[in-house]
Amino acid sequence: MRADAVRNLETVLTTGARMLAADPAASVAAIAAEAGVDRRTVYRHFASRDELLAAVYDARLAAIEEAVEHARLREAPVPVALHRYAESVIEVNRKWPVELTRMRAEPSIQDRRGRVIAEVEAFLARATAEGFFRADVPAGWVYQLLVQLLHLASRQPSGAPEAADLLVGTLLRGVGAN
Predict the structure, then answer these.
(1) Which residues pair with 133 in a beta bridge?
(2) pTM of the entire structure?
(3) Which of 72-78's residues contact partners 24+ apart within 8 Å by CB, and which partners?
(4) What's the maximum distance between 2 C-alpha atoms anywhere in the chain?
(5) Residues of the chain with pLDDT > 90: what percent?
(6) For residue 44, what pLDDT is reported?
(7) pLDDT at 174 over 80
(8) In 10 A of CB 169, how many CB atoms?
């Protein structure tokens, strides 16, 4: 694809994510208009609104997968990996604010999402084993707390880079082992 076509596609997808987060019934025409492209441009890439939705969800999930990879959850020191993960996922949530709930029934999305969750849960188990988190909290509690803190931090103004710092500090002190 030409560079301008790639930019247009990225703009359509990110605009679609933002608009669909605000209004799940947003039309292709409205998304195209907001993205500054013709509706036919959108339909050249996506045969239907459902295909556009699937592409938005796929892009969001791909960005989350990249965030997990970037964080190096298996090998980086726990505080470093946690901060990288938080920083990256906050950025993903801000760029791709649409939730994946509508696509969770899709087997390929379920599989990919399941792998991401398993990777994060394995990281949290490692962090607990290394003494960063209390072992006496209910199973899954730290993961659910992390998810909620990411959600909260993502809604902070994007000019607030300390969101990841605040999240990591809250998590490590809130359920930290010390």
Answers:
(1) 176
(2) 0.86
(3) 73/119, 73/120, 73/122, 73/123, 73/126, 74/119, 74/122, 74/123, 74/126, 78/123, 78/126, 78/127, 78/130, 78/132
(4) 58
(5) 52
(6) 87
(7) yes
(8) 14
Residues contacting residue 157 through CB under 8 Å, at least 6 positions apart = none
Nearest-angstrom CA–CA distance, 93 and 60: 8
pLDDT tens-digit map of 100-118: 666 666 777 888 889 999 9
Closest-CA residue to 121 (of 146, 96, 88): 146
Contacts (Cβ under 8 Å, ≥6 apart) of 170:
149
Q: Using pLDDT thresholds of 50, 70 and 90, give the confidence band for residue 157.
A: confident
Domains defined along the chain, listed by start? 1-45 (1.10.10), 60-174 (1.10.357.10)
Name 172's Cβ contacts closer than 8 Å, sequence gap at least 6: 79, 82, 132, 133
Q: Could you tell me which residue, 51 or 70, shows the higher pLDDT?
A: 70
pLDDT at 101: 66
Q: How far apart are CA 45 and CA 37, in angstroms?
A: 12
| Token representation of residue 135 | 């072992």
Answer for the pair 100, 58: CB distance below 8 angstroms, yes or no: no
Phi, psi of 38 (to 5 degrees): -75, 150
